[in-house]
Amino acid sequence: MSKLEIVGLTKAYGKKIANDHINISLNCGVYGLLGPNGAGKTTLMRQIVALTKPTSGEILYDGQKIEVLDTKYRNLLGYLPQDFDAYGNFKILEFLEYMAALKDVKDSKAKINELMSLVGLQEVKGRKIAKLSGGMKRRVGIAQALLNNPKILVLDEPTAGLDPQERNRFRNMISNLGKEAIVILSTHIISDVEQVAKEIIMIKNGRVRIKASGKELLGKMAGKVFGIRVKDEEQIAEINEKYKIVNVQRGADYTNVRFISHSKPEIVDVWKEEPMFEDVYIEYFER
Ligand SMILES: Nc1ncnc2c1ncn2[C@@H]1O[C@H](COP(=O)(O)OP(=O)(O)O)[C@@H](O)[C@H]1O
Ligand SMILES: [Mg+2]
Predict the structure, then answer these.
(1) Pairing relation of β-strands 56-61 and 29-34?
(2) Do residues 130 and 31 both lie within one domain?
(3) How many independent structural domains does the chain possess?
(4) Cβ proximity of 245 and 225 under 8 Å
(5) 197 & 242 share domain
(6) How crowded is residue 91: how many other Cβ atoms within 10 Å of its Cβ?
(7) How many CB atoms lie within 10 A of CB 272?
(8) Dihedral (C-alpha) 73, 194, 134, 143: value to the nearest 10 degrees?
(9) Ligand 1, atom nearest to 45 Cα
(10) Are residues 121 and 241 in the same domain?
(11) Which domain holds residue 266?
(12) Which of 174, 200, 217 is the last residue before a domain boundary?
């Protein structure tokens, strides 16, 4: 089974450390790269697809440096850039034919047909890319990334601009692709990856905070999530001082606060809550 190893990967832009000693190892399956804006997701992905060179550290594919493998490595890649938006004057079909020629795809007609059905673009294949909705543009971007049957598929914010239905469809598609390839997709929305990802890599300020399965992440929150019915706004402020508030639920005649505490809270009348992914997000990304 193929393996991608990222070793001590560091990328600095002047004084800004965008990736800070990242060490992760990936094999077949879907990985969710999760982090807030500016966390360093795009920077990491651009290095994985060999568009940007690391300041230090290295990336190995099956034990060999990717810059040594060079074209052999590049031929294995599929990439959807975060800012995929060019080629507005091309019609969808023309664009995919053009990309297939660039990538030297064998039997490209059949492949393009297959991909347009997969992402649901068959009906609009004659439309100009500039005229498409954001979600449709992303789908064209996903299709072009898949043209060469990549062994390493890197999707930078693939669900940006997709509506809920498109998101669902996308998740199903991705989990299939993960059976045969290393799939890395970035997002700042945890629900994009909580079900579909084999592991979630949580990144903040250029560092990997944790890499674990969804189940493991929820497990780590067990016994740390609490609820309380508060009397007034002052009490919310007090809780906010000491603990991480996940959300405040305001009903007609009550207000409940959900919060995280690593030890038993020193407040009376709290109850334990079952961990959810929202708690995981707050735990690793807030403050
Ligand atoms: N080409 C660049 N020049 C200078 N700073 C950059 C450049 N690209 C990214 N950065 C900075 O690096 C950090 C990480 O950015 P990025 O990788 O785009 O994060 P994300 O994709 O998680 O939003 C940000 O602070 C960003 O401003
Ligand atoms: Mg980004």
Answers:
(1) unpaired
(2) yes
(3) 2
(4) no
(5) no
(6) 17
(7) 12
(8) 40
(9) 17
(10) no
(11) 219-285
(12) 217
Residue having the nearest C-alpha atom to atom 25 of ligand 1: 38
Same domain flag for 156 and 187: yes
* Strands across the sheet containing 4-13: 16-26, 4-13, 56-61, 64-65
Sign of CA dihedral 268, 274, 278, 284: positive
| Ligand 1 atom nearest residue 157's Cα | 21
Q: What is the pLDDT along the chain (287 residues), one digit of tens a residue?
A: 799 999 999 999 999 999 999 999 999 999 999 999 999 999 999 999 999 999 999 999 999 999 999 999 999 999 999 988 878 899 999 999 999 999 999 999 999 999 999 999 999 999 999 999 888 999 999 999 999 999 999 999 999 888 888 888 888 889 889 999 999 999 998 888 998 999 999 999 999 999 999 999 999 999 999 999 999 999 999 999 999 999 999 999 999 999 999 999 988 899 999 999 999 999 999 86
Give the Å distance between the CA of 243 and the centre of ligand 2.
Answer: 29
Of 217, 235, 255, which marks where a domain is finished? 217
Distance CA 174, CA 179 (A): 9
How many angstroms separate the alpha carbon of residue 82 from the centre of ligand 2? Answer: 6
Residues 151 and 224 in one domain: no
Q: 225 and 112, same structural domain?
A: no
Residue minimizing CA distance to atom 18 of ligand 1:
42
Do 167 and 266 sit in the same domain of this protein? no
- In sequence order, the 6+-apart residues with CB closer than 8 A to the CB of 54 are 9, 10, 11, 19, 47
Distance from the CA of 58 to the center of ligand 1, in angstroms? Answer: 19
Give the ligand 1 atom nearest the CA of 43.
Answer: 17
Q: What is the amino acid identity at position 124?
A: V
Token representation of residue 168: 């669902």
Angle between helices 92-102 and 108-119 (to 10 degrees): 130
Q: Ligand 1, residues 9, 10, 42: which to mutate, most atoms within 8 A of Cβ?
A: 42
